[in-house]
Amino acid sequence: MKSSKARLLATRELIGLEVTVTKSTDPSLRGKKGTVVDETMKTITIRTAAGEKLLNKSAVTIRVEFPSESIEIDGTELLQRPEERLKKLWRKAR
């Protein structure tokens, strides 16, 4: 079960957030840092110093950096369209 902070993150827009890949099935992606510039149902694109990297959500765990804390979330918990995650949040808030 994911923590309440990870649950909150899963219902947010990720574009613009700073992320670091902490775990990946592809060893070359571990430790990559960047800003999320695009998100689809199955992928996240981050802009790094070396260019843009496409991350498969089902293959990574990311840490999102906030000024006061960082939250780690498994990419499989994000496997849906971003707009669908936001709709679920809106429905729960009403």
Could you give a short description of this structure?
The chain has helices spanning 4-10, 82-93; strands at residues 18-24, 33-39, 43-48, 51-56, 60-65, 70-74. With 94 residues, it is of the alpha+beta class.
What does this protein look like?
The chain is α+β, with helices and mostly antiparallel strands and 94 residues long. It has a single domain (4-93), classed as Roll (SH3 type barrels). The chain contains two helices and six strands; from the N terminus they run αββββββα. Strands 4-3-2-1-5-6 form a six-stranded antiparallel β-sheet, with helices on one face. It is globular and about 40 Å long. The two termini are 24 Å apart. The mean pLDDT is 86.
Mean pLDDT: 86
Low-confidence stretches: none
Shape field: globular
Number of helices: 2
Largest sheet: 6 strands, antiparallel
| CATH class assignment | Mainly Beta
Task: Please provide the count of β strands.
Answer: 6
CATH superfamily, please? Ribonuclease P/MRP, subunit p29
List SSEs in N-to-C order. Answer: HEEEEEEH
State the separation between the terminal residues, measured CA to CA: 24 Å
Strand order of the largest sheet: 4-3-2-1-5-6
The SS-based structural class is alpha+beta
Amount of beta strand: 35-45%
Number of domains: 1
